[in-house]
Amino acid sequence: MHVALNQVQRTGAIEHASDGVAQQRYAFQSAAHPQIVLAPTHGTWDWSKQGELHLRVQNAMAWAATLTVDIDDATGQHLQATVGVPAGPAQTLVMPLRAESPRGEGMQVGPPMPFDDHGQPTLLATAVQGVLDLHKVSAIRLGVPAPQAAQTLLFGRLDAAPGEATLHDAYAGIVDRYGQFTRSQWLEKIDSDAALRAAGKARATGAPISGLDAYGGCLDIHGLNKTGWFHTQKTASRWQLVTPDGHAFFSLGVNAVITDGGRSYVEGREFMFKDLPPASGEWAAFYGSGDNRNKDQGASQGIGYNHGRWFDFYAANLYRLDGRNWLDAWRTRTLDRLQAWGFNTIGNWSDDALGRAHRLPYTRSINIDGDYANVSSGYDYWGRMPDPFDPRFVQATEAAVTMASADMRDDPYLLGYFADNELAWAGSGAQGRWGLAVGTLAGDAKSPAKQAFIAMLRKKYVAPETLSAAWGIALGSWDALNVTGFVAPAPNEAHPAITADYSAWLRRYADTYFRTVAEAIRRHDPHHLFLGGRFAVNTPEAVAACAQYCDVVSFNVYADLPQHGFDAAAMHVLDKPVLIGEFHFGSDDRGPFGKGVVSVWNERQRGEAYARFVRAAVGDPVIVGVHWFDYVDQPVTGRLLDGENSHIGLVGITDIPFSSFVEAVREANLHIFAQ
After folding, report:
1. 3-state class of 557 per DSSP?
2. What is the pLDDT of residue 66?
3. Distance CA 395, CA 397 (A)
4. Predicted TM-score of the model (pTM)
């Protein structure tokens, strides 16, 4: 084997690890791409019968080091993996010789590394990208990306091995009978049914806040209107939600307070689970099957094990806790907890019975499903945008609003309605703002949105030559816009009309969507608030349209502070109340491998981040509430929808509250009412 060093120094003599394996020390210098290149002395390697690359490695630093492994073939293709090598004893780095990711195993984040593989510390590269011709392997490149100071690693034997035994072992037996990760310990982890029952039935710390009206409104702010319904009102330069009894209400909510969030596919990967109950007898009720794939959703792309038989770990644990009447017991216990922890709102996607109990105000989701046209903005994480110009969308909206409001319109405990969720109002990248305009023009000739856009352009420009000059494109006739896949120009300084026309279209698109939904809500339920569409990606045009037609503009904000997740200055100019429909902070020290969208190091920091976020929200005169996502931790092996598997809950998969976190949450919530 030939070894070439690029900005890497071989130092010292051969060393031996504690188990006798020979290793050589290498110092990766401060440079852009220091690397070791290993190549066959003659020709190429034939690894066609091999499945894994094994490399002995030890990090000599006192901190974790990042190592990249690139394997090249003679055709210019390569596989690449990046791994964090922790400080400490020598271990075996294993890289699958094919593209691989936790998504392929049915989850978004893989198990922590290294792991004990039959007594050997093993570091699996869980994410491998690229393509490789295993008949013609030409080189292996080991690098440390752009170190700021020299990084020293020790390398020992390197070989290719048949099969994928390490990949299998890394995921084998990672979930116990309660749905918990088997390879680590934490304060709330359960090891027996008796311990589960004892911890699960402990009373929630604290009592519901006193001195509030029946809906949780504060009695010390005067001059607000009593209408018999939740509404918004601006007083003393601050927007307020106001209870039916006329008192100020800052909405502290929790999303997805449900019992079915603990479902995870088991079919085809039974080896990941220890002691699964039998799919018969009393446990049969907690098994199900189905296909949760959605080919139009980016969220579901590449997720393996996404259909077939699933098991509901959370509901099964509730059954262990309370027996046959577990659902009623859970509802009572959960409402007790939420009130004791200072929450006053049941957020989106929650059990309807919790709202009907009339202990806490609640929200309702209007999900507009139907066979109507759609448009791609280029983002499409949750699917393509509904086409609001399609009459079938208007019909679907009418049906969805009718269903959502049927038993709610006369309930004063209903805070209001959200419509859809995190629609793709923008695309990706630097030109993402214009994604919906570009995507509209790329649609086929039958697209109602495309026809509306073309009609708008024809009205403004009259002749296609005028549009050609304004946009700097060749357009022989209006029919040229009608071709499927029309490539619309990107806005540029030389042709400012493009920006103006795209902006006008985005506003018209959003106006049509929000007006359609708002009018349907007003027809079927004139009493309750329209809480907007829970923006994730957005454009100024969409936000302004929402502000015009909705009572409240909602943003799902995944940032350290609410003001870092939406244009707060613009909302002050629009002078409209804002509700944060989702936020969270996650860590990986309580079982699930993911740390959520916004991560912190540990459980203590989750509580600190929550308090900081809520304080910043209360201090902003346009923000009228914040809703945490979500109530229960996601399954270790990924939820059915898209494989998300993060520790972001108030309670674990066993329904045991995370004590230090919920105490910090309670203190932060109570502080609001003490101001």
Report:
1. coil
2. 97
3. 5
4. 0.96
